[in-house]
Amino acid sequence: MALLPRALRPSWIIRRWAMYQGVRSESALFRFLALFLIGRTQFLRTTSMRQGVYGGSRGWQAVAGVFFLNDMMKKLTVKEPEKLSTETLKAGQSVLITSIPPAKRRRKRSA
Q: Which of 29, 30, 58, 106 is in the most buried spot, having the most CB atoms within 10 Å?
C-alpha cells in the first residue's frame, strides 16, 4: 500500500501543474512539458475541449468532434461479456469454479 494517496504524490502534482500551465498558457515550454508529461491524446483532448468547445475555435471544435465520435464508436462496438450461467444459491450450497490448465509451449507450437 502506498504511503501517500495518488493525488498527493509529487509526480502527480508535477503532472497536474504542467497540464494546467501547458494548456492554459501561451508558453511553448509549458505546452511541451504538458504534452510530454500527460501524453499527446490527453493533451489534445483537453485543449480541444477548452479552446474549441468553450473557446469557440472552429479547428479545435473539429478535433473535439473527432474525439467524441471515437468515444461513441468504442462504446457502440464493444462486445458485452457472455454470461455462461446464473444460479441462485441457497443456504449450505457452494459453487466450485475450475478452468482448463493452459497448454505448455511445446504443445502450442505443434498444434
A: 30
